[in-house]
Amino acid sequence: MVRLISYLVGLAFVGVLAIALFGTVSSAISNPAAETAEEEFHLHPHDIGLSSNGFFGRFDNRQVQRGFQVYKEVCAACHSLKYVAFRDLAEIGYSEAEVKAIANQWVIEQPTINPETGEAATRKNVPSDRFPSPFPNEIAARAANNNALPPDLSLMTKARHDGVNYVHALLTGYRPQPAALVREFPGAKTPAGLHYNPYFANLNIAMPPPLTSNGQVAYADGTNATIDQMARDVSAFLTWTAEPKLGARHAAGIATLVFLLIFTFLCWGAYQNVWRDVKH
Amino acid sequence: MAIVNDQLPPGEDPALLTEEVHDPRRRDFINIAAVSFAGVGAVAIVLPLINQMNPSADVLAQSTTELDVSKIAPGQAIKSSFRKQPLFVRNLTPAEIAEANAVPLSELRDPQTLAERTKAGKENWLITLGVCTHLGCVPLGAGEGENKGPFGGYFCPCHGSAYDTAARIRQGPAPTNLQVPEYAFTNDTTVLVG
Amino acid sequence: MSFPWAKQYEPKQPLMRWLDEKLPLPRLVYNAVGAGYPVPRNLNYFWNFGVLAGLALTLQIVTGIVLAMHYAANAGVAFESVEQIMRDVNAGWFLRYAHANGASMFLLVVYIHIARGLYYGSYKAPREMVWLLGVVIFLLMMATAFMGYVLPWGQMSFWGAQVITGFFSAIPLVGESIRIWLLGGYAPDNAALNRFFSLHYLLPFVTAGVIILHIWALHIPGSNNPTGVDVKGEQDTVPFHPYYTAKDGFGVGVFMLVFAALIFFSPNLLGHPDNYIEANPLSTPAHIVPEWYFLPFYAILKSFTADFIIPAKLWGVLAMFGSILLLFFLPWLDSSPVRSANYRPKYRAFLIVLLFDVLLLGYVGGAEANARNVILGQIASAYYFAHFLIILPMVARSERPRPLPNSITEAVLEKHGGTSPAKTALA
């Protein structure tokens, strides 16, 4: 009885799948899926080899600090960094006094309440503050940016596939739309107000090229600020903002693996020892 | 789940019937080593589980409070907060200062002079945590019209601890004076606590 | 314990004797996982995974309780509270990565445990109840894992909650009302997040309870073994402790090595980047997929694209739940008296096909829904159902199994090149 019901249920599922399969195959033959511009022209970022990669990866504080300078002078005008606090900058090698000064001199002030009148006000940032958003809310951000929302950058390198390399590729990837693309897909011409970038998922990004000329940022450490260098440095900085504990994680990981290797080896020895007289 | 084995006569260990007598070999040290490592590993895992309950970095970071004391008239006090605890800032009148200085130290449970509890040249500014040292209630006396207790300072309604005008414990179960936090005057009217 | 030669607990110290009289808890442990539980001597490494699953659940409960001390189950701040755990809480990043990857390790270990049961016929009499309870544990785990994935309130959390509660809207007439009741609203929001958190905290303890029943039921007949042959006598078994505790210790070491490598060096390997974007009810991610351990079932759901009597959506949901629920009937679908697939060449061949079939389903579940992948998914889903519901019962009746060893000991001695007692007797 169980077997009979089983056959019937099995045949029902297999039968419906056969019908569905027939439908899929026939529609695939009658109207095969046309290739889209995204499929043909989207590019994958290449590896930029940051020092934080790999088992022993550590942040290069000088590079991360340069990236912070790029964020401060270029990105911060539109992009918030809301999960990072000024005090966190101490982790990338700034002294307590430097952190205080950076917070104090930050252009965008921290929203607060006037203690006497209760009205909305702003005050200078202190180290315990998180980075203030350049826009008071999403509507203001969209209104100032042609209805596009500049995303928060705190987690950007973890929130995109291959995010570390993606940030660099995107920042250096702006170029004129290839003539072949427009010839092949006339409907896919980059609309006015958007910018062609083959590393962006749908090829047309609202953000105008942020890094436009060599030397756009005058690096405090004297490094030559080429566009590629600035893009690398800001990728390194955003790797840190997304995963500030990476150095500690790798260090703890090495220690843990060494311990566990010894432990596992001892356990194997104990296992062999206990079973030495028993065939199994 | 245990099934009593009544096939064997009492006192007969079934294991002895088949197993060879175990001879302790030197190789057994590896068993001990493995178990010891397991113990060390377990302790290593427990450490972060305990440490996570310590104050987090954002809590530790918000540990200073800046206060403007210019609007506090003599005889008045304000309540503010420091590390999420109430903070009393009191502008003592000359009479209150005299009263506090008149008490012999030998009478005090927690002997301290007013001068030790204030900053030099700013003896009229008594800045203490508003946390009763008995069991942590907020004493009365800082707000306008509140009961200042029998010694004219603060009075804790929970268990009746009374503090004097230097916020020293004078009566009741509290063991010590109200705590004076670390602070400094950054100018004549601004105090940075913490 | 059920064997007459099982060692009896004999407390030597007066304190332990006193305790044994008042509350025989040490005796219970001794009989369950101590020297008082005789286990076949020929278990292979696949038998390590039950203990590893128990360890994984324990680690999940411990890290979960600790994370709940910092997590805020409110749609407004949930995402931020997780970021705070990652950045500010002492060792918070470790605890969260351990919990997130711990779920994957738990499911991985349990999948191997289930595959072991399928291959060696551990679901067959007299162990049907062990298997049924196991399927219940699996269902509880899936529910817990899903609700846990919703808690960080990222984009995949939100849209996962939307899609999975959407299954219920496939039920005719009352479906939409059930969905709204489950969510406490028209879309996932604070109400849904809070109840998911509550249940996510509760269900692991329910799971632990069912695991105790699972182990209890196992101890009635005792453990199966790679030959599938019943234990005949004392020479076939060894006490669980120290023999299998030692072997499990080694298994735990290997498990922890893999787990640590994930936590410390690739903590986001099994996650999805979109879950680092806060939930946005107005924008669906371009490519929405569940966690890896649900992908085969997700592929089955996606494969039903044709209306036939009932709508395609309902077929998909029925098939997806059916693909798990059919496991409940397995002990009665497979009527072959031989347990181990080692002695069932035909069944073994089909089982290997099933393994690749499920891996293919996993691939299709995570891949883009283009024509090629949909076709692959439909063929693979058809085999899945055919395997359990048609092939398995038929093979059980038609197959001629290879000769079984007379006993576990005989099989062991044969493996080690000695002559079996049976053969000796014949000679």
TrEMBL record, chain A:
SUPFAM superfamilies in UniProt: Cytochrome c (SSF46626)
Single GO MF descriptor: metal ion binding
Cellular component GO terms, alphabetical: membrane
Signal sequence coordinates: none
Key words of the record: Heme, Iron, Membrane, Metal-binding, Transmembrane, Transmembrane helix
Protein's UniProt keywords contain Membrane: yes
Transmembrane segments: 251-271
Textual note on the cofactor: Binds 1 heme c group covalently per subunit.
Required cofactor names: heme c
Binding sites annotated in the UniProt record for heme c: 75, 78-79, 207
Location of the protein in the cell: Membrane
Domain (Cytochrome c): residue spans on this chain: 62-171
PANTHER family per UniProt: CYTOCHROME C1, CYTOCHROME C1, HEME PROTEIN, MITOCHONDRIAL
Full protein name: Cytochrome c1
Lineage: Bacteria, Pseudomonadati, Pseudomonadota, Alphaproteobacteria, Sphingomonadales
TrEMBL record, chain B:
Transmembrane regions listed in the UniProt entry: 29-50
Record flagged with keyword Metal-binding: yes
One GO MF term attached to the UniProt entry: metal ion binding
Main localisation: membrane
Catalytic activity: a quinol + 2 Fe(III)-[cytochrome c](out) = a quinone + 2 Fe(II)-[cytochrome c](out) + 2 H(+)(out)
EC number: 7.1.1.8
Keywords: 2Fe-2S, Cell membrane, Disulfide bond, Electron transport, Iron, Iron-sulfur, Membrane, Metal-binding, Translocase, Transmembrane, Transmembrane helix, Transport
Uppermost EC category: translocase
Domain of life of the source: Bacteria
Record protein name field: Ubiquinol-cytochrome c reductase iron-sulfur subunit
Lineage of the organism: Bacteria, Pseudomonadati, Pseudomonadota, Alphaproteobacteria, Sphingomonadales
Automatic annotation (TrEMBL), chain C:
Single GO MF descriptor: oxidoreductase activity
Membrane topology, record value: Multi-pass membrane protein
BP GO terms, sorted: respiratory electron transport chain
Keyword vocabulary terms for this entry: Electron transport, Heme, Iron, Membrane, Metal-binding, Respiratory chain, Transmembrane, Transmembrane helix, Transport
Keyword Transmembrane helix assigned: yes
GO CC aspect terms: respiratory chain complex III
One Pfam family this sequence matches: Cytochrom_B_C
Location in or out of the cell: Membrane
Binding note for cofactor: Binds 2 heme groups non-covalently.
Family affiliation: Belongs to the cytochrome b family.
PANTHER family: CYTOCHROME B
Biological role stated in the UniProt entry: Component of the ubiquinol-cytochrome c reductase complex (complex III or cytochrome b-c1 complex), which is a respiratory chain that generates an electrochemical potential coupled to ATP synthesis.
Protein name: Cytochrome b
Organism listed in the record: Sphingomonas rubra
